[in-house]
Amino acid sequence: MLLLTKKQRNNFSKIQLFIVGEMHGAKENIRIIKELVNILDINIICFELETKWNKEFAHFNRNNFLYKLKKEQWILDSGLFSLSHVNLVSWLLRRKKSVCAVRKEKKDWNVSEKETALYINSLARKNRPERILVIVGNSHARKGTFTSKDEFGKKYIYKPMRLFLKDKAVSFLVRYSNSVAYNFGAIDLKDDVAYKKLEGLSMRVIPSSNSSFEYDILV
């Protein structure tokens, strides 16, 4: 169970938009989403799927959704969305929550990030003051730019979606003390510092030691 301090509850009470940076495919991700939905009184849950999936969420049918998901096998293989996520959507809809997809896919990563941020910002404005939880890979949830090599081996300055939202959101980095992610194969996730800071709890939120995020979710 996720517990927040009194100070955290007070800080979060003023926030509409929460962004979680996860490792796709980690087994704890579904539990984290459920805990945050309950403790933060979230009304709208957004996933890093392309916005074309909103038609499927609007007329959600579990079997039809699974059928279409299997046609895009890479989504399942990457851990971006899985059978557990489909079951999660059913759980959310039974609780009268709204579910949506926010990814605006473009050839240029930075353009895609900016347009995704604009889409999220518009969604927040239209639904104010309802609280929104956005689930993305951790590279999209960073507050600042980062440099890495692109697919051609050239250095590229990446501008994450969270950067374009500026001070309109709070970002969490999920840190996995001892887990496995199924992301194009099994990946061991072991964060010894997170394990120590959990102090025997199953889940905990603390101020982030990473300047690109406001908080860490330890699990």
Overall description:
The chain is α/β, with parallel strands linked by helices and 219 residues long. The protein has a single domain (15-218), classed as Rossmann fold (3-Layer(aba) Sandwich), CATH 3.40.50. It is built from nine helices and eleven strands. It has helices spanning 6-12, 29-39, 54-58, 62-70, 73-78, 83-94, 109-127, 161-165, 192-198; strands at residues 17-22, 44-50, 98-103, 132-137, 146-149, 155-158, 170-175, 178-182, 186-190, 204-207, 215-218. The strands form three sheets. It has a seven-stranded mixed beta sheet with strand order 3-2-4-1-7-11-10, sandwiched between helices. A two-stranded antiparallel ribbon has the order 5-6. A hairpin with a 7-residue loop joins β10 and β11. The protein is globular. It starts with 5 loop residues before the first helix and ends with a strand. The mean pLDDT is 95.
List keywords for this structure.
about 220 residues, two-stranded antiparallel ribbon, 7-stranded mixed beta sheet, Rossmann fold, about 35% helix, 11 strands, alpha/beta
Q: Specify the number of helices.
A: 9
What would you call the structural class? alpha/beta
CATH topology: Rossmann fold
Spatial order of the strands forming the largest sheet = 3-2-4-1-7-11-10
Taken in chain order, the helices and strands follow as: HEHEHHHHEHEEEHEEEHEE
Largest sheet: 7 strands, mixed
The shape, in one word, is: globular
Summarize model confidence as the mean pLDDT. Answer: 95
Radius of gyration: 17 Å
What is the helical fraction, as a range of percent? 25-40%
Give the CATH level 1 class: Alpha Beta
Please provide the count of β strands: 11
**How much beta, percentage-wise?**
25-35%
